[in-house]
Amino acid sequence: MNGFQICALTRRVDSQIVEAFRVLPVANVSDCMSRMTAGGAGLRPYHSTGVLAGPAFTVKTRPGDNLMIHKALHMAKPGDVIVVDAGGDVTNALIGELMVATAVKNGIAGFVMNGAIRDVDAIGAGAFPVYAAGVTHRGPYKDGPGSINVPISLNGMVINPGDLILGDADGLLCVPIDEAQALLEATRRKQDAEKVTIREIEEGTLDKKWIDATLKRLGVEVPA
Q1: pLDDT tens for residues 4-60?
Q2: CB-facing half-sphere around the CA of 213: CA atoms within 13 A
Q3: Cα–Cα distance between 111 and 95 in angstroms, integer?
Q4: Burial class (CB in 10 A: 0-12, 13-18, 19+), 125
Q5: Which of 32, 57, 144, 196 could form a disulfide with 80 if both were Cys (CB 3.0 to 4.6 A apart)?
Q6: CA angle, residues 30, 25, 197, in degrees to nearest 5
Q7: Tens digit of each residue's pLDDT (9 = 90 or more) over 182-196
């Protein structure tokens, strides 16, 4: 009852599924999840380029405190994404250049911070994926409490340990581990359909009848 809990990550999304999703736009995956899931527009990428994909290694911490993030950084396996629920508070930075350097050395796939970061010039110059809710120069506390590998929620997006975390320039998404294979197949079908649409746009054959049909269904008078 002291506010600390450290659990092992015993189940991770399959590495082959991770790599398959890496080349798919987050927006298309989101569409295949009925557009009902998102990490929030406030969680933005601060690295220079590149996508984020990997199993979630979750941390729930007191806002402004990074003790349990340090512990997670040395527990997580190569390829894991450290995802931190710090309540969205941006008063104190949770990570900076030194922790990113440690993560790179340990083979971590990226950071997601529902909180603030600092040293953005250094982070922005690199390709190591870092998503955060904001920036401040003020450093963190290191007292806890917090939990590791427990279910967390980022702006309503529930993340269970081992779920697939995806991120690109459009933002972040969590794919539940048990739905990953079905969503992979659905997203691939959507990608194929979009390739057809792009070709129709280029050829001038895109069917636009649905627009007027929808307006008429909604009671809008459409000029001939």
Answers
A1: 999 999 999 999 999 999 999 999 999 999 999 999 889 999 999 999 999 999 999
A2: 4
A3: 9
A4: exposed
A5: 57
A6: 90
A7: 999 999 999 999 999
With 0.90 as the threshold, say if the pTM is over it: yes
Phi, psi for residue 207 in degrees, rounded to 5: -75, 115
97 token code pair? 């250049």
Is-cis flag, bond preceding 145, omega within 30?
yes
Bridge-based pairing of strands 164-168 and 52-61 is antiparallel
Q: How far is CA 1 from CA 39, 121, 126, 147, in A?
A: 29, 40, 40, 12
Question: For the CA atoms of 124, 17, 102, 154, what is the dihedral angle to 10 degrees?
Answer: 70
Q: Which two tokens stand for residue 74?
A: 């040395």
